[in-house]
Design goal:
Blueprint lengths: L6 H4 E3 H8 L4 H9 L7 E3 L2 E5 H12 L6 H7 L4
Helix pairs in contact: 2-3
Length: about 80
């Protein structure tokens, strides 16, 4: 029996991650990858993939904060 791992079942690509996190710019997601906020990300078929577990961990950490910084608010609103 062949081991069939489907990336789409357990991971989101950069665009999907931005949509889930309500972040307008995919470059912000790339910055989060650089900052190691998604430690288990990987590149496959020329796309960056982020495990859903990493995204949930990030969401939980963000939700633990009561306020957004000015930078975080600007990123969420699509400003540089």
């Amino acid at each position: 029996m062949k081991n069939s791992f489907n990336i789409a079942d357990s991971c989101l690509d950069v665009k999907q991650t931005a949509q889930r996190l309500k972040i307008r710019s995919t470059s912000t997601i790339h910055k989060l990858i650089q900052d190691k906020k998604f430690p288990n990300n990987f590149k496959s078929n020329n796309k960056w993939w982020i495990p859903i577990e990493d995204i949930e961990t990030y969401e939980k950490a963000k939700n633990d904060k009561r306020f957004l910084s000015a930078k975080e608010a600007a990123e969420r609103l699509g400003y540089k």
